[in-house]
Amino acid sequence: MTTFNPPIKARTTKELLLIVGAPDEWNEIALLEAQSELALRKVNELEIKQAKHSSKQKARLEELKRAKESYSVFDFIFEPITFIEIIFSWELKKDGYLRKAEQQRWFRKTLLVLLLAILLFFIIYK
């Protein structure tokens, strides 16, 4: 049997509601134990539904925040790895960073045009 630290039964009702409210973040055993403990404590079904709704809202807000996150000039100055991330990362859109993915596309196109212009310059003036 799986043991949890602290045990599910020792957790507060608020912590149990957080477990039941976010079933994707917990394994099935913890979820079942939390549900049974809430039933033993006679927690209102409305509170459980509210915890689930609250968890979904929190997840949606996180997704929205991730979608609006963007690169700034300071990222390139203070975090040089940003340049490498923009060139080699293919997961930004899949991970929900929609604005960063759009900036990445624009940056790659600009970099390609710049490299072609430099190459053309050296070919013509050689």
Write up this protein.
The protein is mostly helical and 126 residues long. The chain has 2 domains: 8-65, no CATH class; 69-124, no CATH class. The chain contains 6 helices and no strands. The chain has helices at residues 13-21, 28-40, 45-68, 73-78, 81-88, 98-124. α1 (13-21) crosses α2 (28-40) and α1 crosses α3 (45-68). The longest helix has 27 residues, at 98-124.
Helix-strand layout with pairing:
Elements: H1 13-21, H2 28-40, H3 45-68, H4 73-78, H5 81-88, H6 98-124
Helix pairs in contact: 1-2, 1-3
Task: Describe the structure concisely for a colleague.
The protein has about 130 residues and is an all-alpha fold. It is built from 6 helices and no strands.
Q: Count up the domains.
A: 2
Number of helices: 6
Percent range for β-strand residues: under 5%
Please report the distance between the alpha carbons of the first and last residues.
74 Å
Overall outline: rod-shaped
Number of strands: 0
What structural class should be given to the helix and strand makeup? mainly alpha
Major sheet details: none
Mean pLDDT: 89
Low-confidence stretches: none
What's the helical proportion of residues? 55-70%
* Rg (C-alpha, Å): 24 Å
Order of helices and strands: HHHHHH
